[in-house]
Amino acid sequence: MPSLPRSLPPSVTRLVDALSQLPGIGPKTASRLAYFLLRAPPETAASLADALRDLKARTRLCSVCLNITEADPCEICSTPSRDRGVICVVEEPLDVTALERARFGGVYHVLHGVISPMNGVGPDDLRIRELLARVAEGRDGVPVREVILATNPTLEGENTAAFIARKLSGSGARVSRLARGLPVGGDLEYADEITLSRAIEGRQNL
């Protein structure tokens, strides 16, 4: 990141540096955000600070699906009407939000990433071990009938899905993949409800 003018107060420089660490935020955008907060009423900055403190203090990972939650287990895992025999495996918590818009009725498992040797991420860095345990043990007396691999249709997502499918072979659960209604190279987060619904309905065995 290019150095900021020395005329800037240290507090402004510190904020710009912090904002620049966020994904998709470059130095120019970080500077614009910092100056917006400088001009905004004090309650705006205070509200943002409170929200950030609450985010770190109140959120945790669900002990069942590893989604982000404030209560453990999360609302989805604790809802009796969800089909615990069908687990949809996703890369990130935002993918759960996207699939919920498509009214998926099962439960989820969040990997928190994908296998990516180029970035130093291996299977042991993800929540794959917890998934295998869930499939082996079931939940509340309900055996897992199907595991839907809903990783993104990228090279890393496909490799992660293939690895999990191999690990689940012989588990007795059907292993399926979302249909190709999703664009190759796209993210679930940006898919519309109709595309996601068709992808779920047209899933295929692996």
Summarize the structure.
40% of the residues lie in helices and 13% in strands.
Number of helices: 7
What is the CA–CA distance across the termini?
Answer: 44 Å
Give the class from helix and strand content and strand pairing.
alpha/beta
Strand order of the largest sheet: 4-3-5-6-7
Task: Report on this structure.
It is a single chain. This protein has helices at 10-20, 27-39, 42-58, 93-101, 128-137, 155-168, 193-201; strands spanning 60-61, 68-69, 83-90, 106-110, 146-149, 174-177, 204-205. The protein has 206 residues and is α/β, with parallel strands linked by helices. It folds into two domains: 10-58, Helicase, Ruva Protein, domain 3; 68-205, Dna Topoisomerase Vi A Subunit, Chain: A, domain 2. The strands form two sheets. A five-stranded mixed β-sheet has the order 4-3-5-6-7. The model has no long low-confidence stretch (mean pLDDT 91).
List the helices and strands and how they pair.
Layout: H1 10-20, H2 27-39, H3 42-58, E1 60-61, E2 68-69, E3 83-90, H4 93-101, E4 106-110, H5 128-137, E5 146-149, H6 155-168, E6 174-177, H7 193-201, E7 204-205
Parallel strand pairs: 3-4, 3-5, 5-6
Antiparallel strand pairs: 1-2, 6-7
Helix pairs in contact: 1-2
